[in-house]
């Protein structure tokens, strides 16, 4: 590239500072796919002969095979993946290779490679999200009769089923899948043909190139197309929110695996020990996932900050989009894979969960609603039950051990049927509104998700 305009080579220190091939080599498949489609368009426009086109196609195929076999030598002095492949092609097939860059700039070339890469990774991450949701669904189906306290403020609140909790996690990860599908719409735009920023006087059939590369649309402004990294920001946001949901799930599992809770246990395969304390079983896979979420946030902020004040069109700053993108992709891929493998191995302590869910105070709201159903305004019922709970705490007795006579002192509407309030199965059976945790609802949701996600066999 320096021939003609420059008289001397770039300083070695400048070459080391500016090279990107040490990390953007990962884009080679997309670069070769783009070059193959571009060569076909040049041949159709009669910029190169059919023979030259065949040479380029064969040369690119050979280079891809060489890269995938590990025999290709990446040269940092050629800066990036694009120049390395172009140089290797010209060396392999001669002058025909030098025609490939006609009507194309590295600016629209890298924009194309990035979009092809993100499109593929949306598909891959979506597939791993589906595997995770299946693992959660299998766990919900296996433990459909297990009850557990629901928590707010990390304090026992109301009884739910363990399956209802797991189905809630599936809902969150489904939103992640929806975001990825939505992100794909804005990623699925062909930038190739935009040139450096103003297209080219050599007019190629961009719509045909788009179809060949699997794009549904063609960019409509060349200046915007070469600098647009919104799709990268959006994808990194999607990955960051996946990390958020994995982190919250990790936190629940970590807390529930403590001796204080004892609701579940990680198997040996997904636990680690202590270098000092022989008795320890540490939930390191969940802890690492919780920690890696910070990196996902950092990568998103890196791209947002890098692009926030760039002048219009392409600037070299945009080279800095790749490392954060690659890192977030690798991080989320690995986290989804580990969770899909780890969840089926969880050991669930049904008895401990049942005992915790049988805490009479969990039915305080049910008790207030019992009075509401008999005609007392909710605020008054809330006050009656609240004072009753306080008195039980002072006397050290369980809420369900208060005699009917004592209850009637607070409201004459209490009757013998009040005992049903403290029956956990009865309590859950009454929660029949859409989205509530009755066994019927949970069974219906499991059936719905099974039809949607399949079994993955």
Report on the architecture of this protein.
The chain is mostly helical and 457 residues long. It has three domains: 12-102, Fumarase/aspartase (N-terminal domain) (Fumarase C, Chain B, domain 1); 107-355, Fumarase/aspartase (Central domain) (Fumarase C, Chain A, domain 2, Up-down Bundle), CATH 1.20.200; 358-453, Fumarase/aspartase (C-terminal domain) (Ribonucleotide Reductase Protein R1, domain 1, Orthogonal Bundle). The chain is 60% helix and 5% strand. It has helices at residues 12-18, 21-24, 28-44, 50-68, 81-93, 106-142, 162-187, 206-213, 222-227, 230-256, 284-307, 322-342, 350-357, 364-373, 378-395, 404-410, 424-429, 439-453; strands at residues 147-152, 155-161, 189-190, 217-218, 264-265, 347-348. The strands form three sheets. The protein has a two-stranded antiparallel sheet with strand order 1-2. Helix 8 (206-213) links the parallel strand 3 (189-190) and strand 4 (217-218). Helix 6 (106-142) crosses helix 18. The longest helix is centred in the first third of the chain and has 37 residues, at 106-142.
């Amino acid at each position: 590239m320096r021939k003609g305009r420059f008289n001397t080579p770039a300083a070695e220190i400048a070459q080391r500072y500016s090279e990107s091939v040490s990390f953007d080599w990962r884009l080679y498949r997309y670069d070769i796919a783009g070059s193959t489609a571009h060569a076909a368009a040049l041949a159709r426009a009669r910029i190169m002969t059919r023979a030259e086109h065949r040479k380029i196609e064969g040369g690119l195929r050979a280079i891809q095979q060489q890269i995938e076999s590990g025999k290709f030598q990446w040269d940092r002095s050629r800066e990036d993946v694009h120049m390395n492949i172009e140089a290797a092609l010209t060396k392999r097939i001669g002058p025909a290779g030098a025609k490939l860059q006609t009507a194309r700039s590295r600016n629209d070339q890298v924009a194309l490679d990035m979009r092809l890469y993100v499109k593929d990774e949306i598909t891959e991450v979506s597939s791993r999200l589906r595997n995770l949701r299946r693992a959660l669904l299998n766990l919900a189906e296996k433990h459909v009769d297990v009850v557990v306290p629901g928590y707010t403020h990390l304090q026992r609140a109301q009884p739910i089923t363990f399956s209802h909790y797991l189905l809630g996690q599936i809902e969150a990860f489904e939103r992640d899948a929806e975001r990825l599908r939505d992100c794909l719409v804005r990623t699925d735009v062909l930038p190739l043909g935009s040139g450096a920023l103003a297209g080219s006087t050599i007019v190629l059939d961009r719509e045909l190139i788009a179809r060949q590369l699997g794009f549904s649309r063609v960019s409509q402004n060349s200046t915007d197309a070469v600098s647009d990294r919104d799709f990268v920001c959006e994808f990194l946001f999607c990955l960051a929110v996946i990390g958020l949901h994995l982190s919250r799930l990790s936190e629940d599992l970590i807390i529930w695996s403590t001796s204080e809770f004892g609701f579940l246990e990680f198997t040996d395969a997904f636990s680690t020990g202590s270098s000092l304390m022989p008795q320890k079983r540490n939930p390191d896979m969940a802890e690492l996932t919780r920690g890696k979420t910070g990196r996902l946030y950092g990568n998103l902020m890196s791209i947002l900050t890098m692009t926030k004040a760039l002048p219009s069109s392409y600037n070299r700053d945009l080279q800095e989009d790749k490392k954060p993108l690659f890192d977030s992709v690798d991080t989320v891929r690995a986290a989804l894979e580990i969770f899909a493998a780890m969840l089926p191995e969880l050991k669930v302590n049904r008895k401990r969960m049942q005992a915790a869910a049988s805490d009479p105070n969990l039915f305080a709201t049910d008790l207030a609603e019992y009075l509401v159903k008999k005609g007392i305004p909710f605020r008054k019922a809330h006050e009656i039950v609240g004072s009753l709970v306080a008195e039980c705490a002072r006397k050290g007795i369980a809420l369900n051990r208060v005699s009917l006579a004592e209850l009637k002192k607070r409201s004459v509407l209490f009757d013998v049927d009040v005992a049903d309030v403290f029956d956990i199965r009865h309590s859950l059976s009454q929660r029949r509104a859409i989205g509530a945790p009755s066994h019927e609802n949970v069974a219906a949701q499991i059936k719905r998700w099974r039809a949607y996600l399949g079994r993955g066999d």
